[in-house]
Design goal:
The protein has helices at about 5-30, 40-45, 65-75, 75-80, 110-120, 135-145, and strands at about 60, 155. By secondary structure, it is an all-alpha fold.
């Protein structure tokens, strides 16, 4: 290191040492924005549901109950029977074979619990997180029934939903093998 470099470095260190305490004193006078987050606040947003169903709430729903809710809160965007309207198609589709790839709940989604999780947190688009858990189970059951994944009489709840075998369950490579 040249003499000039050492001198410049020494001057910078002296200036830094002189300014540091003044900056610390000024920071004590600044406003304290925000408040500490409480566990109850976090719990209200901690609604993720894993593939194994961990975290599913109490409640249940059938395809017939879901059809009524879907007609009133979902059909305007997704079509009367999930065929697509203003937004994404939910029924049919394909991801293998000839023809265009069409990703739907029936052709692409790997877990029924993921369908529940998405509906719960994001639907309806105009009022996310507004459906009750019973309504989410019912709409999930209806969408699964439209895709011929479950039967008309099947009841979806925290016990049955994780056991639903989606057509594309094996179409994904797990990021963390053995974790789910």
């Amino acid at each position: 290191m040249s003499m000039f470099d050492r001198s410049a470095l020494l001057r910078a260190a002296v200036v830094f040492a002189a300014v540091l305490p003044a900056g610390a004193a000024r920071s004590a006078d600044t406003p304290r924005l925000g408040v500490p987050v409480q566990a109850a606040d976090i719990a209200a947003w901690d609604i993720s549901i894993g593939p194994d169903g961990a975290g599913l709430p109490p409640g249940s729903g059938t395809p017939a109950e879901g059809a009524v809710i879907f007609a009133g809160k979902c059909a305007a965007c997704h079509g009367e029977r999930g065929e697509g309207a203003a937004n994404t198609r939910l029924v049919g589709g394909q991801i293998k074979g000839d023809g265009p790839i069409v990703k739907t709940v029936g052709s692409y989604w790997p877990y029924a619990t993921t369908v529940f999780d998405f509906i719960r947190r994001a639907m309806p688009w105009t009022a996310p997180k507004s459906l009750t858990d019973h309504e989410v189970y019912a709409v999930t059951a209806y969408v699964l029934r439209l895709n011929s994944i479950i039967g008309d009489a099947d009841v979806m709840d925290a016990e049955t939903l994780p056991r639903v075998r989606m057509p594309n369950r094996d179409g994904f490579i797990p990021l963390f093998p053995g974790k789910h």
